[in-house]
Design brief:
The chain is built from 14 helices and 17 strands. With about 425 residues, it is of the alpha/beta class. Helix 4 packs parallel to helix 5, helix 5 packs parallel to helix 10 and helix 7 crosses helix 8. The structure holds NADP nicotinamide-adenine-dinucleotide phosphate.
Length: about 425
């Protein structure tokens, strides 16, 4: 029988899931691959930690060097995370002609193109299914199943922590801070949740999705990234009354101009939107193909076993290519040779908005708000005012017709200076 020998860097949540899946499904994997997978070396950092029941002492080491220079290793599995030294390890493995499977979204978002080009030059494979939406096979779908179609838009809920928090706020009427604490206690959020709730993690994943779907390159810096930490329980309630749910979205859309609309932010979606029903820590990616039409993939975007499903499937694919001596058979991105599209500046984005103003209850306030918006071509579709009382501020909530974001922001900046305004205006995009 043929055999592929892997070396794995990292043996934490994902790494131990990989070992477990390789162990439990060894027979069926072997039958499907037409060969076996041998875990030759595993490298971690902390000598004191337990690594679960599926690793023998002889396999475990603490020197990445020994793994990277081992000529008996065909495939390097990088499940340690972070840009460095993970990036250097992946680069060295590819340079040595070893194929790489990684779950590292930060690395692929930041350096995916250079690494894909390196893999291509070296005739090696670089697979990263687990980097986007954990166990959901979205990279494979874009790269292989939909290679025949032209993708029009990809919209996803790709950060389980953010989705869990907004779902809890929605279901239980909690404030953001309370829902975040609950998420931390339930193990859905890290002690430092910045990358999740601030949108950075979703931005990494969107960057990768935009590369796979549209051939975008290195867009992280120019990407509009807004976290869910600006969403208030009051916004969720007002949105509900208008028939919307607030979801943490990542959107990549091809515009008629050829440019890309790329954004990560909480958005109002209608109750009938398929993404409105993706709750808790679930992830989903909604792809729209010109020929296919809409297609929804949903499932668990994190966790040891779901993520391991993607990592091990990548190992099997890489192994099939090795057996067929066809490494590099499937290009990293179906667009890796095309010209990268430009990114539309967010000021030129056009869409509908939800606006909430906190104002003193004075005569003429609504008129002044409408005038300030109207002067910038932002017209109002619906409006409610809530709360009363001489000294208490009231909320004015507006839904707008489609407007240009630059114009809207200019109007809001002027409104924020008006004497009756108590707090800066809140604005959320309506993605419908
Ligand atoms: N967790 C998920 O659900 C999930 C889902 C999708 C993708 N991912 C991605 O998968 C990767 C791993 O995540 P994880 O949750 O498994 O992280 P983790 O539990 O923190 O595990 C990281 C592992 O890497 C090892 N490590 C770190 N620095 C090292 C170094 N310099 N040399 C050798 N080993 C080193 C750690 O060693 P010690 O154990 O000795 O500390 C640990 O075993 C990340 O890129 C993450 O974004 C995770």
């Amino acid at each position: 029988v043929s055999k592929i020998r892997i070396g794995m860097i990292g043996c934490g949540v994902v790494g131990q899931g990989v070992l477990r899946l390789l162990h439990e499904n060894a027979k069926s994997i072997e039958a499907r691959l037409g060969g076996s997978i041998e875990v030759r070396r595993v490298v971690a950092r902390d000598r004191g930690k337990s690594r679960g029941p599926h690793l023998r002492d002889a396999q475990l080491g603490f020197d990445p060097e020994a793994l990277l220079t081992d000529p008996e290793i065909d495939v390097v599995v990088e499940v340690m995370g972070g840009l460095e030294p993970a990036g250097a390890f992946v680069q060295r493995a590819l340079t040595a002609g070893k194929s790489v499977v990684t779950a590292n979204k930060a690395l692929i978002a930041d350096r995916g193109h250079a690494l894909m080009e390196l893999a291509e030059r070296r005739g090696a494979d670089l697979y990263f299914e687990a980097a986007v939406a954990g166990g959901i096979p979205v990279i494979r779908v874009l790269r292989e199943a939909l290679v025949s179609d032209r993708i029009v838009a990809v919209r996803g809920i790709v950060n389980g922590t953010s989705n869990y928090i907004l779902s809890q706020m929605q279901e239980q009427g909690l404030a953001f801070e309370v829902a975040l604490k609950q998420a931390q206690q339930a193990g859905y959020a890290e002690a430092d949740p910045t990358l999740d709730v601030g949108g950075g993690d979703a931005a990494h994943k969107l960057t990768i999705l935009a590369t796979m779907a549209f051939g975008a390159r290195g867009e992280l810096q120019s990407l509009t990234t807004e976290g869910i930490d600006t969403v208030d329980a009051a916004d969720i309630e007002f949105a509900r009354r208008y028939g919307y749910v607030i979801k943490p979205l990542a959107v990549a859309r091809a515009l008629p101009s050829g440019a890309l609309d790329l954004r990560v932010h909480p958005a109002l979606v209608t109750k009938d939107d398929p993404l409105a029903h993706i709750n808790g820590a679930l992830n989903a990616v909604h792809i729209e193909g010109a020929a296919l039409g809409p297609c929804l993939l949903s499932g668990l975007g994190a966790g040891a076993l779901p993520t391991a499903v993607s990592v091990v499937s990548d190992i099997v694919d890489v192994g099939r290519n090795l057996f067929a001596q066809a490494s590099g058979r499937v290009a990293g991105s179906p667009f890796s040779t095309g010209r990268a599209p430009s990114i539309q500046p967010i000021a030129d984005y056009r869409g509908r908005y939800y606006l909430r103003f906190s104002v003193r209850d004075q005569r003429g306030v609504l008129g002044k708000l409408a005038t300030a918006l109207g002067e910038r071509d932002v017209s109002i579709e619906q409006m409610v005012q809530e709360g009363h009382g001489k000294d208490q501020p009231v909320s004015v909530v507006l839904l707008t017709h489609p407007a240009r974001e630059g114009d809207l922001r200019a109007a809001l900046a002027e409104i924020d200076k008006l004497s009756f305004v108590v707090e800066p205006a809140r604005a959320l995009r309506i993605e419908a």
